[in-house]
Amino acid sequence: MSVIKNPSELAGCIDHTILKSTARPDDVRKLCAEAIENKFAAVCVNAGYTELAATTLEGSGVETCVVVGFPLGAGTTNAKAAETAEAVELGADEVDMVINVGMLQAGELDYVENDIRGVVSAARGKTVKVMEPEILGGLPVSAENLAWVQKGLFQVVQGDRGTARRIRIPGVNIAGKTGTAQVFSRKKGETFDHMKVKKELKDHAWFVCYAPAEKPAIAVSVIIEHGEHGSSQAAPIAGELIRQYLGIVPVKALEKK
Question: 89 and 57 in one domain?
Fold first, then answer.
């Protein structure tokens, strides 16, 4: 193993990367300029910016690296191969592909191998690296404590005294939390008549939830500026969104028919 003895050698090992969905052309150009200035090994971009990066880096010694199947790796082999072929045609020097982790975990090794071979073949001799999706973090709480939190969220909607019990949907359990966010600070013990407060100074109303509680298919967050009460203002909107998403027709609509 070689030993890095100075910063210039370290720079030559770095892939300068921008893969966020909000990246703009000027962001990519700036990244390329930084890579050239610092003599990084490569600039890594999403496939849509292959040509821009390759053109900007041309003659600099910095390579253009493109991700394929990013970020989940769950696309078909043909789709990954086509993406690879186009990236190489547009100037990619390296392809970083994401494998199908679900297939790997299921022991479908032939599928995973063929997936990699398909991309390597399409790369036509260019360097191909294989990546697994990275779990960036998690909740720093124990399973026991998390279970208590989930029970509390369940009771907010499904409990007899839950603050969002009015948005219940027959046959679907919802877990959530109502709340408010103060617009201005108050001293301890200070009171005020909210009826006399200007609208722009009234509390914001919010509600967050997910459903079905046992196996979530949708998560919703609603914030009503100066709405004051999460239970009466924000929660009903979330409930309606869940109905629409799950295709549940309100009882009153059925009665009208």
Answer: yes
Q: Which CATH number covers residue 192? A: 3.40.710.10
Calculate the dihedral angle through the C-alpha atoms of 172, 173, 175, 178, rounding to the nearest 10 degrees: 70
The answer to whether residues 81 and 27 belong to one domain is yes
Q: Give the side-chain half-sphere CA count within 13 A for 149.
A: 9
The residue segments making up the domain with residue 124 are 7-131
Helices and strands per DSSP (H, E), number in the chain: 9, 8
The pTM for the full model equals: 0.53
Element (H, E) at 72: none
Tell me the per-residue pLDDT of 58-74, one tens digit each, with 9 for 90 and over. 999 999 999 999 988 99
Sheet (strand 94-98) strand order: 15-18, 42-45, 63-68, 94-98, 127-131
R_g of the chain computed on alpha carbons: 26
* Residue 145 main-chain phi, psi, to 5 deg: -65, -40
